[in-house]
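User: Continuing from earlier, I have the next pair ready.

Assistant: Great, send them over.

User: Here they are, in order.

Assistant: Folding the first of the pair now:
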Amino acid sequence: MKALVYTGPGTVEVLERPKPRIQDPTDAVIRVLHASICGTDLHILKGDVPSAKPGLVLGHEGVGIVEDLGSAVHSLEIGDRVLISCMTSCGACRYCQKGIPSHCQTGGWVLGNHADGTQAEYVRVPHATLSLHLLPTSIPSRAAVAVSDAFPTGLECGVLSADVQPGGSVVIIGAGPVGMATLLTARLYTPSLIVMVDIDDARLATARDLGAHATVNSSSPDARQQLMTLSGGLGFDSVIEVVGISATFALCQELVAIGGRIANVGVHGTKVDLHLERLWDRNISIHMSLVNATTTPRLLRLVESGVLDIGSLVTHHFSCNEASKAYETFQAASQHQALKVAIDF
């Protein structure tokens, strides 16, 4: 089969790899229809994820058709169209039982990290019963890849962790695909103010189209003053970081209101400062997590019912043979006005 392989720092190549087979009774083999590139894949290329070694098939997001099933998988049938969750979970270990399957002792973030991932013509998915979701016929396959990771990450690590409330104020720093998913899921909780922050005016325009009440370009000299003015000088109840660099987390600490919450979604590869000397008496909470993807069934129901529109997130798609171009487009997303980049197989 053809697969997109991480061959070294900054390099992805399309290579021939053996088609995966069932290894455990709980496995499924999926014929991939569409995969997508995540910001985390770029962090792998940068060397920020030491567990991902050269030779790895990248990707943890995708939609496909069930090709083969292990003997213990009874909830699916060969030929089913399924969403591949970014997290695999056994459902039985201590972490799954505690409700944090992202740290499953035999699963978690396996695909495209510890084992070959979804950016290939076929992928073996462990713990298939809890790690695959039947796709309703009304949801387009390519658009659905955004529900593999971006939407559950935005909802769980962003909106729920930041305790977005009806009538509250929200600022989201980072208007990439996960930031946009955070915006769309935050709207479900009817805050009175959602402000999106980014350095890309095109993405900020898209954020306004998707329902942001206001946007601020953080490269503006008076960006902080604009943000504080929008919050009435009080700061924001919910501050969500969706970039993963020191400067954006520092901005979060400046913007959080007394009694507010900071939710870190971004992947940080370098040291970040925490200014306790300014924050210790403000009664705030800071939450950081890896997505558990336990909200995926809920999100699919919202999409199926028309309450949540996922159609705007996948903006570009390429064939498997155009993998280098796909990665180049995602790496220069602002130049191409790209959000989610899909790869078709």
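And the other member of the pair:
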Amino acid sequence: MAEKRIVKVAAVQIAPDLDTSEGTLDRVLAAIAEAAQKGVQFAVFPETFVPWYPYFSFVRPPVLSGADHMRLYEDAVVVPGPVTEAVAQAARRHKMVIVLGVNERDHGSLYNAQIIFDADGRILLKRRKLTPTFHERMIWGQGDGAGLKVVDSAVGRIGALACWEHYNPLARYALMAQHEEIHAAQFPGSLVGQLFADQIEVTIRHHALESGCFVVNATGWLTEDQIASISPDENLRRGLRGGCMTAIVSPEGNHVVPPLTSGEGLLIADLDMGLIVKRKRMMDSVGHYARPELLSLLIDDRVAAPVRSINAARFSSSGESSEEAAEISSGTNDDGD
């Protein structure tokens, strides 16, 4: 019998500091330290938590959002940079794997990014949300297939998606096919109301069942004072309440501990990694339950770039690439005489 492996995890539901990015980072570091005191080995924070999720874009028309959008640019995270270095140091100090959601600034564009730090502080993955949703398209650019990766970490194989990426079955299948063991899900929280919370729960429980993995999901939280600061209109403020479903789900689709749906806190649970094989013995969606000869997934996992160059050094004086020339000279070019 294999040795039983238990991983202690935390899903973090806290409020950002809507005034300063430094304040939000301080809250992240404090939550990491608190989780470490409780023996946590793996922690997930909400979607674009640093410096904050752009709630303003949900309740305010674009023509009135310029100042807030510019402030988000000013406070956004450069990767690598001071924010990632601070979190990396905390991960290293506490020997903790951390998944952090940030607004990433890359020159003139912002992206919804997820960063996975290993327990030694290394960044294992930085990925960008494939398709921002509705109002988010005014804020963020699009990600690419290069981020659809599952990475080996100190606690196992980790995959991550943000919010409604979980409604993209092919994106989820890309991670399933790489045999993720713990899936980090991130949603904004404090948005849309109970309907959103219910949808999140259905979505993450279904992914756990289908992937045969654990899901650790973190949603954010806004205080009443913060909600009032975003909009003076009570009708609009209703859209900034509820929608919280911080939860930890087993490969059998069950809540490991009761979810956290309001207020701030750390949801902590022990994961029995043996449950993964127990679930997959019955239904392995990328193994014995798959039919790749009928249905398969094609992924372009290249980094999307606005410019691609062809190195002139690769070409011979005849205009043939060095690889082509090598094929012809060796007699391996099937199209040659």
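Worth noting for the second one:
The radius of gyration is 22 Å. The chain has two domains: 6-282, 307-337.
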